[in-house]
Amino acid sequence: MIVKQIHSYLMAKSYDYAMRSTEKRCLQKWRKELLAQADGELLEIGAGTGVNLPHYPDRVSQIILSEPDAQMRKRLQRRTGQLQKERFNITSWGAESIKMPDASFDTIVSTLVLCSVPSLEVSLNEIYRLLRPNGILLFLEHVISNHPATRTWQHRIEPFWSLCAGNCRLTRDTAAEIHASGLKIERLTEAPMVGAPTFVRGTIRGVARKVPEPG
Ligand SMILES: C[S@@+](CC[C@H](N)C(=O)[O-])C[C@H]1O[C@@H](n2cnc3c(N)ncnc32)[C@H](O)[C@@H]1O
Predict the structure, then answer these.
(1) 74: Cβ–Cβ under 8 A, 6 or more apart, which residues?
(2) How far is the CA of 214 from the centre of ligand 1 (A)?
(3) pLDDT digit string (tens) for 15-50?
(4) What is the per-residue DSSP string for 95-148?
(5) Is residue 72 in contact with ligand 1, taking CB distance under 6 Å?
(6) Distance 215 CA to ligand 1 centre (A)
(7) Mind listing the pLDDT tens digit for each residue in 78-89?
(8) Which end is more exposed in the chain, N or C (fewer Cβ atoms within 10 Å of the end residue's Cβ)?
(9) CATH 3.40.50.150 fits 2-209, yes or no
(10) Residue 167 has what pLDDT?
Protein backbone atom coordinates (compact mmCIF):
# COMPACT_ATOMS: atom_id res chain seq x y z
CA MET A 1 0.00 0.00 0.00
CA ILE A 2 2.69 2.48 1.04
CA VAL A 3 4.82 1.47 -1.99
CA LYS A 4 1.81 2.20 -4.23
CA GLN A 5 1.34 5.61 -2.61
CA ILE A 6 5.02 6.53 -3.03
CA HIS A 7 4.91 5.37 -6.64
CA SER A 8 1.78 7.41 -7.30
CA TYR A 9 3.34 10.49 -5.65
CA LEU A 10 6.52 10.19 -7.74
CA MET A 11 4.59 9.61 -10.98
CA ALA A 12 2.41 12.68 -10.44
CA LYS A 13 5.32 14.84 -9.34
CA SER A 14 7.56 13.90 -12.28
CA TYR A 15 4.92 13.64 -15.03
CA ASP A 16 5.00 17.17 -16.46
CA TYR A 17 8.80 17.34 -16.23
CA ALA A 18 9.28 13.92 -17.88
CA MET A 19 6.95 14.89 -20.75
CA ARG A 20 8.31 18.43 -21.22
CA SER A 21 10.47 17.80 -24.28
CA THR A 22 7.87 15.63 -26.06
CA GLU A 23 5.17 18.20 -25.29
CA LYS A 24 7.24 20.95 -26.90
CA ARG A 25 8.26 18.86 -29.90
CA CYS A 26 4.83 17.52 -30.86
CA LEU A 27 2.21 16.85 -28.19
CA GLN A 28 1.18 20.48 -27.51
CA LYS A 29 0.47 21.02 -31.20
CA TRP A 30 -1.45 17.75 -31.49
CA ARG A 31 -3.51 18.47 -28.36
CA LYS A 32 -4.40 21.94 -29.64
CA GLU A 33 -5.54 20.66 -33.05
CA LEU A 34 -7.46 17.73 -31.59
CA LEU A 35 -9.25 19.60 -28.82
CA ALA A 36 -10.29 22.44 -31.14
CA GLN A 37 -12.94 19.93 -32.31
CA ALA A 38 -14.48 19.58 -28.82
CA ASP A 39 -18.05 20.76 -28.39
CA GLY A 40 -21.03 20.62 -26.03
CA GLU A 41 -20.90 18.72 -22.74
CA LEU A 42 -17.53 17.08 -22.32
CA LEU A 43 -15.92 14.30 -20.29
CA GLU A 44 -12.16 13.85 -20.17
CA ILE A 45 -11.00 10.47 -18.84
CA GLY A 46 -7.64 10.16 -17.04
CA ALA A 47 -7.11 13.92 -17.07
CA GLY A 48 -3.77 13.57 -15.23
CA THR A 49 -2.16 16.90 -14.30
CA GLY A 50 -4.51 18.79 -16.63
CA VAL A 51 -2.29 19.43 -19.66
CA ASN A 52 -5.31 19.51 -21.97
CA LEU A 53 -7.21 22.18 -20.06
CA PRO A 54 -5.80 25.31 -21.78
CA HIS A 55 -6.76 23.87 -25.18
CA TYR A 56 -10.51 23.58 -24.63
CA PRO A 57 -12.44 26.08 -26.77
CA ASP A 58 -14.67 28.58 -24.94
CA ARG A 59 -17.82 27.03 -26.44
CA VAL A 60 -17.24 23.97 -24.21
CA SER A 61 -18.91 25.29 -21.09
CA GLN A 62 -19.08 22.28 -18.78
CA ILE A 63 -16.18 19.84 -18.45
CA ILE A 64 -16.07 16.74 -16.23
CA LEU A 65 -12.52 15.61 -15.52
CA SER A 66 -12.18 12.03 -14.29
CA GLU A 67 -8.91 11.04 -12.67
CA PRO A 68 -8.67 8.01 -10.35
CA ASP A 69 -5.20 8.82 -8.98
CA ALA A 70 -5.35 11.06 -5.88
CA GLN A 71 -1.92 12.62 -6.47
CA MET A 72 -2.77 13.49 -10.07
CA ARG A 73 -6.10 14.92 -8.87
CA LYS A 74 -4.30 17.30 -6.51
CA ARG A 75 -2.38 18.75 -9.45
CA LEU A 76 -5.53 18.85 -11.54
CA GLN A 77 -7.25 20.81 -8.79
CA ARG A 78 -4.39 23.32 -8.73
CA ARG A 79 -4.54 23.75 -12.50
CA THR A 80 -8.30 24.24 -12.67
CA GLY A 81 -7.92 26.83 -9.91
CA GLN A 82 -5.66 28.85 -12.20
CA LEU A 83 -8.27 28.74 -15.00
CA GLN A 84 -12.06 29.30 -14.94
CA LYS A 85 -12.72 27.00 -11.99
CA GLU A 86 -16.51 26.96 -12.49
CA ARG A 87 -16.11 25.27 -15.91
CA PHE A 88 -14.59 22.14 -14.38
CA ASN A 89 -15.88 19.32 -12.23
CA ILE A 90 -13.26 16.85 -10.98
CA THR A 91 -14.18 13.21 -10.16
CA SER A 92 -12.25 10.08 -9.17
CA TRP A 93 -14.06 7.73 -11.56
CA GLY A 94 -12.11 5.19 -13.58
CA ALA A 95 -12.82 5.10 -17.32
CA GLU A 96 -14.46 1.69 -16.99
CA SER A 97 -17.13 2.97 -14.58
CA ILE A 98 -18.31 6.55 -15.10
CA LYS A 99 -21.26 7.27 -12.83
CA MET A 100 -23.37 9.15 -15.36
CA PRO A 101 -26.51 8.13 -17.30
CA ASP A 102 -26.38 6.85 -20.88
CA ALA A 103 -25.91 9.51 -23.59
CA SER A 104 -24.60 12.21 -21.23
CA PHE A 105 -21.85 13.70 -23.40
CA ASP A 106 -21.28 15.28 -26.80
CA THR A 107 -17.50 14.87 -26.56
CA ILE A 108 -15.26 12.44 -24.67
CA VAL A 109 -11.51 13.00 -24.61
CA SER A 110 -8.81 10.40 -24.02
CA THR A 111 -5.16 11.37 -24.38
CA LEU A 112 -2.51 8.81 -23.38
CA VAL A 113 -5.01 6.98 -21.15
CA LEU A 114 -6.35 3.96 -23.05
CA CYS A 115 -2.88 2.40 -22.73
CA SER A 116 -3.35 2.30 -18.91
CA VAL A 117 -6.96 1.29 -18.30
CA PRO A 118 -7.37 -2.27 -16.91
CA SER A 119 -9.66 -3.29 -19.80
CA LEU A 120 -9.66 -1.44 -23.11
CA GLU A 121 -12.85 -3.20 -24.20
CA VAL A 122 -14.80 -2.31 -21.04
CA SER A 123 -13.62 1.32 -21.14
CA LEU A 124 -14.57 1.73 -24.80
CA ASN A 125 -17.99 0.18 -24.17
CA GLU A 126 -18.44 2.72 -21.38
CA ILE A 127 -17.43 5.56 -23.74
CA TYR A 128 -19.94 4.29 -26.31
CA ARG A 129 -22.68 4.18 -23.66
CA LEU A 130 -21.93 7.71 -22.47
CA LEU A 131 -21.84 9.38 -25.88
CA ARG A 132 -24.96 10.94 -27.35
CA PRO A 133 -25.90 9.93 -30.89
CA ASN A 134 -23.43 11.79 -33.15
CA GLY A 135 -21.18 12.41 -30.14
CA ILE A 136 -17.43 12.10 -30.66
CA LEU A 137 -14.43 10.52 -28.98
CA LEU A 138 -11.26 12.60 -29.46
CA PHE A 139 -8.27 10.34 -28.92
CA LEU A 140 -4.50 10.55 -28.85
CA GLU A 141 -2.83 7.31 -27.80
CA HIS A 142 0.44 5.45 -28.12
CA VAL A 143 -0.03 2.01 -29.66
CA ILE A 144 1.68 -1.16 -30.81
CA SER A 145 4.30 -0.58 -33.51
CA ASN A 146 3.92 -1.54 -37.18
CA HIS A 147 7.55 -2.72 -37.21
CA PRO A 148 8.02 -6.42 -36.32
CA ALA A 149 11.31 -5.88 -34.43
CA THR A 150 9.84 -3.07 -32.31
CA ARG A 151 6.72 -5.15 -31.63
CA THR A 152 8.87 -8.00 -30.35
CA TRP A 153 10.60 -5.59 -27.95
CA GLN A 154 7.31 -4.08 -26.87
CA HIS A 155 6.04 -7.54 -25.90
CA ARG A 156 9.27 -8.29 -24.02
CA ILE A 157 9.43 -5.01 -22.11
CA GLU A 158 5.70 -4.68 -21.37
CA PRO A 159 5.54 -6.67 -18.07
CA PHE A 160 8.32 -4.56 -16.53
CA TRP A 161 7.23 -1.26 -18.11
CA SER A 162 3.62 -1.61 -16.98
CA LEU A 163 4.79 -2.17 -13.39
CA CYS A 164 6.91 0.99 -13.44
CA ALA A 165 4.58 3.21 -15.46
CA GLY A 166 1.12 2.89 -13.87
CA ASN A 167 -0.09 -0.17 -15.84
CA CYS A 168 0.83 1.43 -19.19
CA ARG A 169 0.60 -1.22 -21.94
CA LEU A 170 2.79 -1.08 -25.03
CA THR A 171 1.03 -3.59 -27.27
CA ARG A 172 -2.52 -2.33 -27.60
CA ASP A 173 -4.04 -1.99 -31.06
CA THR A 174 -6.30 0.83 -29.91
CA ALA A 175 -7.65 1.83 -33.35
CA ALA A 176 -8.89 -1.74 -33.94
CA GLU A 177 -10.53 -1.77 -30.49
CA ILE A 178 -12.22 1.61 -31.06
CA HIS A 179 -13.62 0.22 -34.30
CA ALA A 180 -14.76 -2.97 -32.51
CA SER A 181 -16.62 -0.91 -29.88
CA GLY A 182 -19.05 0.32 -32.54
CA LEU A 183 -17.63 3.84 -32.89
CA LYS A 184 -16.87 4.95 -36.44
CA ILE A 185 -13.37 6.32 -36.90
CA GLU A 186 -13.76 9.40 -39.07
CA ARG A 187 -10.22 10.75 -38.87
CA LEU A 188 -7.04 8.88 -38.04
CA THR A 189 -3.47 10.16 -38.09
CA GLU A 190 -0.48 7.97 -37.30
CA ALA A 191 2.71 9.72 -36.29
CA PRO A 192 5.83 9.13 -34.22
CA MET A 193 5.91 10.88 -30.83
CA VAL A 194 9.13 12.81 -31.34
CA GLY A 195 11.52 12.53 -28.41
CA ALA A 196 9.84 9.47 -26.87
CA PRO A 197 11.62 6.10 -26.48
CA THR A 198 11.14 3.82 -29.53
CA PHE A 199 8.77 1.46 -27.73
CA VAL A 200 6.21 4.23 -26.98
CA ARG A 201 6.82 6.31 -30.09
CA GLY A 202 4.01 5.07 -32.36
CA THR A 203 0.82 7.10 -31.87
CA ILE A 204 -2.64 7.43 -33.31
CA ARG A 205 -4.91 10.44 -32.95
CA GLY A 206 -8.27 11.33 -34.38
CA VAL A 207 -12.03 11.40 -34.12
CA ALA A 208 -14.45 8.49 -33.67
CA ARG A 209 -18.20 9.08 -33.82
CA LYS A 210 -21.19 7.30 -32.34
CA VAL A 211 -23.30 6.98 -35.45
CA PRO A 212 -27.03 7.07 -34.59
CA GLU A 213 -28.78 3.73 -34.96
CA PRO A 214 -31.35 3.71 -37.79
CA GLY A 215 -35.00 4.01 -36.87
C1 LIG B 1 0.02 8.90 -19.07
S2 LIG B 1 -1.12 9.70 -18.04
C3 LIG B 1 -1.94 10.78 -19.21
C4 LIG B 1 -2.45 12.03 -18.55
C5 LIG B 1 -3.14 13.03 -19.50
N6 LIG B 1 -4.36 12.47 -20.04
C7 LIG B 1 -2.23 13.45 -20.62
O8 LIG B 1 -2.65 13.52 -21.76
O9 LIG B 1 -1.07 13.81 -20.34
C10 LIG B 1 -2.32 8.43 -17.78
C11 LIG B 1 -3.42 8.87 -16.84
O12 LIG B 1 -4.46 7.88 -16.85
C13 LIG B 1 -4.90 7.73 -15.53
N14 LIG B 1 -5.55 6.41 -15.39
C15 LIG B 1 -5.00 5.24 -15.04
N16 LIG B 1 -5.94 4.28 -15.00
C17 LIG B 1 -7.11 4.86 -15.33
C18 LIG B 1 -8.45 4.41 -15.45
N19 LIG B 1 -8.77 3.14 -15.22
N20 LIG B 1 -9.39 5.31 -15.79
C21 LIG B 1 -9.08 6.59 -16.04
N22 LIG B 1 -7.83 7.08 -15.94
C23 LIG B 1 -6.86 6.23 -15.59
C24 LIG B 1 -3.65 7.86 -14.69
O25 LIG B 1 -3.93 8.12 -13.33
C26 LIG B 1 -2.96 9.00 -15.40
O27 LIG B 1 -3.36 10.24 -14.89
Answers:
(1) 12
(2) 34
(3) 999 999 999 999 999 999 999 999 999 999 999 999
(4) TT---S-TT-EEEEEEES-TTTSS-HHHHHHHHHHHEEEEEEEEEEEE---SSH
(5) yes
(6) 37
(7) 999 988 778 999
(8) C
(9) yes
(10) 94
